[in-house]
From TrEMBL:
Organism name: Rhodococcus opacus (Nocardia opaca)
Name recorded for this polypeptide: 6-phosphogluconate dehydrogenase, decarboxylating
Any single biological process term in GO: D-gluconate metabolic process
Assembly and interaction partners: Homodimer.
Binding residues annotated for NADP(+), in chain numbering: 17-22, 40-42, 82-84, 110
Positions of the 6-phosphogluconate dehydrogenase C-terminal domain: 186-475
Listed PANTHER family: 6-PHOSPHOGLUCONATE DEHYDROGENASE
Molecular function as annotated in GO: NADP binding; phosphogluconate dehydrogenase (decarboxylating) activity
């Protein structure tokens, strides 16, 4: 049923910003029995949603912010689905001026978490609750059940949580939604989720390239390989849709669609945010960083065009045992994915400590099992690992994942070395393996780095056999003194 706002405050939730994501999530609320107030700066979009989908549930049509706010039951709950940045600030200010203490504003966009921290503090001073909610799943997830990561005041979740949980994806009867933590924690977690997504997609891309370039498989054959992989430990949304994309034919040429798509990957910024945040926190997210850099390099089309024909050196012969090398790629993909998730959870732990958020990794693995882009079978394993040891130093050290990498390690090395000898770029595979080797090393060359830093900048160093900081008098008699 759809009506104009003539009956006063009757809507349980309001959605402003009715582009595809906003429209779909409004429809999702309505389909689950909630009365939804609708608002959009362009009234035409409100009319279009009601005309096309008004039969799906109970919508309240509004045109002004005052009318929109007046249609909501108290405490008022408004979900903003507009472009991040200044547009979000403008809508927040407009809403805040019309709302009352105790009301809740939810930002469901991909906002930078530091902006969310700022907005939450500002609105708290005005008596309003502000919730930064990461929402993953794309257009389909918004309509049929996303993974939702709401941060903000815990008391606001009592009024908001049941609504969000009702529209979230469900796995084993558990909603893919939980209160993440204070202020910007929800958007922080969503940011890292997207960083892991970047790494996952880059790794899949490298596997695709190896199957084609090293083994000569065409798109259809590679699609069959990914379909087979999706039936095992690699089962995931991204592996599933990879096969679908590879099977798609171009209507114009009859060729596989992937062969006529320009090989320049775009990005909206969350991957870069993840890497910048990791640098600030001092967390090595090498797999995610390489994925971001790979997209940047793919977009440098003029530079790449000019570099075609540069020397490759003497290349090795291609693998002769296609079945074995295909299995090697599968194992390398799985091991590298473990590293990407491990680095992502390390960053989440560092962010939690930095901002005193008290985040729980097992909860995140639980809500990522469905709805979101990185949903995968092995998230159950990640949940189990953190349930068993919430203070796990690294996901790689959990018994299941340690065993999985030990099983894959020889294949992983063969893939990286073969790709290098064939001149095939595998930045994410290689950096993930290098990270693993550095993590397990008893000694790293950082000792030399500290010696150099002390030489030119008197930055001091620690000793393995004594407590405290030390400095060598490099310009003097080169004796050592305690700093």
């Amino acid at each position: 049923m759809t009506i104009d706002n003539t009956e006063g405050a009757r809507a349980q939730i309001g959605v402003t910003g009715l582009a595809v994501m906003g429209s779909n999530i409004a429809r999702n609320f309505a389909r689950h029995g909630h009365t939804v107030a609708l608002h959009n700066r362009s009234i035409a979009k409100t009319h279009a949603l009601i005309e096309e989908h008004g039969s799906e549930g109970d919508f309240v049509r509004t045109e002004t912010i005052e009318e929109f706010v007046g249609a909501l039951q108290k405490p008022r709950r408004v979900l903003i689905m507009v472009k991040a940045g200044d547009p979000t600030d403008a809508v927040i200010e407009e809403l805040a001026a019309a709302m009352e203490p105790g009301d809740i504003i939810i930002d469901g966009g991909n906002a930078l978490y530091t902006d969310t921290i700022r907005r939450e503090a500002s609105l708290r001073e005005r008596g309003l609750h502000f919730v930064g909610a990461g929402i993953s799943g794309g257009e389909e997830g918004a309509l049929n059940g996303p993974s939702i990561m709401p941060g903000g005041p815990k008391e606001s979740y009592a009024a908001l949580g049941p609504l969000l949980e009702s529209i979230a994806a469900q796995v084993d009867g558990t909603p893919c939604c939980t209160h993440i933590g204070p202020d910007g924690s929800g958007h922080f977690v969503k940011m890292v989720h997207n960083g892991i997504e970047y790494a996952d997609m880059q790794l899949i891309g490298e596997a695709y390239n190896l199957l084609g370039s090293a083994l000569g498989y065409d798109a259809g054959k590679i699609a069959d390989v990914f379909t087979d992989w999706n039936g095992g430990d690699l089962e995931s949304y991204l592996v599933e849709i990879t096969a679908e994309v590879l099977r798609q034919k171009d209507a114009k040429t009859g060729k596989p669609l992937v062969d006529v798509i320009v090989d320049a990957a775009e990005q909206k910024g969350t991957g870069r945010w993840t890497v910048k945040s990791a640098l600030d926190l001092g967390v090595p997210v090498t797999g995610i960083a390489e994925a971001v850099f790979a997209r940047a390099l793919s977009g440098s089309r003029e530079q790449r065009k000019a570099a075609v024909g540069l020397a490759s050196g003497v290349l090795a012969d291609k693998p002769t045992d296609a079945a074995q090398f295909t299995e090697d790629i599968r194992q390398a993909l799985y091991a590298s994915k473990v590293v990407a998730y491990a680095q992502g959870f390390d960053q989440i732990a560092a962010g939690s400590a930095e901002y005193d958020w008290d985040l729980h990794p097992a909860d995140l693995a639980t809500i990522w099992r469905g709805g979101c882009i990185i949903r995968a079978r092995f998230l159950n394993r990640i949940k189990d690992a953190y349930d068993e040891n919430p203070k796990l130093p690294s996901l790689i050290l959990a018994p299941y994942f340690r065993d999985a990498i030990e099983t894959a390690i020889d294949s992983w090395r063969r893939v990286v070395s073969t790709a290098t000898l064939l001149g095939i770029p595998v930045p994410a595979f290689a950096s993930s393996l290098s990270y693993y080797d550095a993590l397990r090393a008893e000694r790293l060359p950082a000792a030399l780095t500290q010696g150099q830093r002390d030489f030119f900048g008197a930055h001091t160093y620690e000793r393995v056999d004594a407590e405290g900081k030390f400095h060598t008098l490099w310009s003097g008699d080169r004796s050592e003194v305690q700093a």
